[in-house]
Amino acid sequence: MRILITGNMGYVGPVVVAHLRQRLPDAELIGYDAGFFAANLIGGGTLPEHVLARQEFGDVRDLPPALLAGVDAVIHLAAISNDPMGHRFEHATLEINQQASVRLARLAADAGVSHFVFASSCSVYGFAESGARREDDALNPLTAYARSKIGTEEELAQLGAAGGMIITCLRFATACGMSPRLRLDLVLNDFVASALLNGEIKVLSDGTPWRPLIDVADMALAMEWAATRQPDQGGPFLVVNAGSAEGNRQVSTLAETVARIVSHTTVSINRSAPPDRRSYKVDFGLYARLAPDHQPRVTLEQSIQRLLHGLIASGHTSEPLLRAGATRLRALEEHLASGRLTGNLRWSRVPLVADPLAGAQVAA
Predict the structure, then answer these.
(1) pTM above 0.70, yes or no
(2) What is the extent of the structural domain holding 72?
């Protein structure tokens, strides 16, 4: 089996690659990534990509059709991956998250790929007060990121209606947990880092918003299922919430749970903050029925413990240094400030100039 994983050098990708290598030891795994966050590894050790058959580099907007030759499944992770980045780079978010995703799916269908897995998001529900949201409930996207996910799902549905490829849109709960390329711009990860490095968690909202959470290890489990499922498990085109009922937590509860596990941590909540409109609970009953053997296994407490152990083992004790690489918007802005990236999030062609001290060619 040959599997192409786009965006494999981000936060979720390394965990997915490691999981697939363990579960499908004979599979030929190919990575494709622009490399924006390739250097943002936490701790030392072996590059996560060493288990791949090969790593390809490129912009997903330009992914060459030839790369899909002989591919059985595409796991599509490449995206501008959160609300702040979507706001800062709205046009690029549309291009990368939606237009490039649909182009890739069409190329995959033309190449005879049997399974296409799209990493969507429960953020499409936006704000919902009337109970846990099911897949057929009304959507309420509040951000460019969420709108790009809905737009992609809608176009993939049209492609799915033509048949020939099993398409799965996994509406993931909010990601959390340890990864070789850690992100700290996610609520639980942020709380654990703040508790460990500062002994304090500051909740900027009033603490009442609901968030569904899923550990990256369980996201990998869901993607394995989606890349191998049969048509009788949801049909040739499927949109499904990926997570578990136990993952629905209020922000204040998350902070208090972290403080209970990370000793000597205080929690402050801004009770006078205006309501956070990003609040929703999600119904994961369909996923439980379709994929009983691939249900989330990592508890909230285990996610916190893994983050805590991973941060300690990494040796990072400087919060500014850690957050510079683990906050994705900051990492992109650093690339922009250096001239490495253009405003539309494409690598610039930086000229080479002679370094008189080293007597070698270095990037300007």
Answers:
(1) yes
(2) 2-183+213-247+280-298
